[in-house]
Design brief:
Layout lengths: L3 E9 L5 H11 L3 E13 L2 E7 L2 H14 L4 E4 L5 H13 L5 E3 L17 H8 L5 E2 L3 H8 L6 H13 L5 E3 L8 E7 L4 E7 L9 H14 L4 H17 L15 H5 L3
Parallel strand pairs: 1-2, 1-4, 4-5, 5-6
Antiparallel strand pairs: 2-3, 7-8, 8-9
This protein binds adenosine-5'-triphosphate and 4-amino-5-hydroxymethyl-2-methylpyrimidine.
């Protein structure tokens, strides 16, 4: 069987984040990629200059079109923009029985542009998290979801436990925004805590790191990996992509989506 992976996310014209990052990652990992577009952004490495959301019905219809014909082994969500789109996605995921769902709770782009309305955090928490196999917040997103301040490893774990208590089966709180020697992510599935660690790369080319990581986990899940193995594959994929970053644009450049394939083992 061909592994089938769906991304429900926004378009990044710059190609480093959003559905573009997701499709490239799916392809690199040998999963057949499909998309349900939530919004179009005009964006490059310097920032976001425009956002045009799609009607919630258009998002639901895209999910229905692919789920009822091609089938979905695993799906991820990225930029969802507002609570009406979140409601439509939550309902479509439930109706089509998509069980391997990775929720990347995208809120703010690297340059500070909002990709989710402030009043939609509640809808994310109430409607989508209970359906998630995995939620992948960065530290500011974990703080917004839980209301906790996160400074230490113990704080990351406390937030992870709170997110699982909201109904998600598992969570990875990503430590990319820290400043230590290593970029450490904390995994919790209601039973065990695992820290995934990689050397921190000194670079500003980190546009789309979160999208790429969650897409790699989704592709691995579509291929039948179990959850913690899929998260480890995601970590290896993003670490290679950051280490071999492409120096494109004048701001936060994209990661290198082919590095895991071409550089692994080196
Ligand atoms: N400089 C870095 N060196 C190594 N790993 C990093 C670095 N920055 C981020 N990572 C890793 O990349 C993954 C994505 O984490 P990050 O916190 O950057 O996501 P994010 O903020 O959601 O990204 P974005 O919003 O730009 O898509 C995590 O595994 C994190 O540890
Ligand atoms: C469309 C889109 N989704 C997600 C992110 C977060 O990196 C972004 N910058 N743009």
């Amino acid at each position: 069987m061909v592994p089938r992976a769906l991304t429900i996310a926004g378009s990044d014209s710059g190609g480093g984040a959003g559905i573009q990052a997701d499709l490239k990652t799916f392809q690199e990992l040998g999963a057949f990629g499909m998309t349900a577009l939530t919004a179009v952004t005009a964006q490059n490495t310097l920032g976001v200059s425009g956002v045009w959301p799609l009607p919630p019905d258009a998002v639901a219809k895209q999910i229905e079109a692919v789920a009822t014909d091609i089938g979905v082994d695993a799906a991820k969500t990225g930029m969802l923009f507002d609570s009406a789109i979140i409601e439509a996605v939550a309902e479509a995921v439930r109706r089509h029985g998509i069980e391997k769902l990775v929720v990347d709770p995208v809120m703010i782009a690297k340059g500070g542009a909002p990709l989710l309305k402030a009043d939609a955090v509640e809808a994310l928490r109430r409607r989508l998290l209970p359906q998630a196999l995995l939620v992948t917040p960065n530290i500011p997103e974990a703080e917004a979801l839980t209301g906790l301040a996160i400074r230490t490893r113990a704080d990351m774990e406390k937030a992870a436990r709170a997110i699982v208590a909201m109904g998600a089966k598992a969570v990875v709180v990503k430590g990319g925004h820290g400043d230590g020697e290593t970029a450490d992510d904390l995994f919790y599935d209601g039973a065990r805590v695992e820290v995934l660690s990689a050397p921190r790369v000194a670079t500003r080319n980190t546009h789309g790191t979160g999208c790429t990581f969650s897409a790699a986990v989704t592709a691995a899940l579509a291929k039948g990996e179990d959850l913690l193995d899929a998260v480890r594959i995601g970590k290896a994929f993003i670490t290679a992509a950051i280490r071999e970053a492409l120096n494109l644009g004048g701001g936060h450049g994209p990661t290198n989506h082919w590095a895991y394939r071409t550089k692994s083992g080196s």
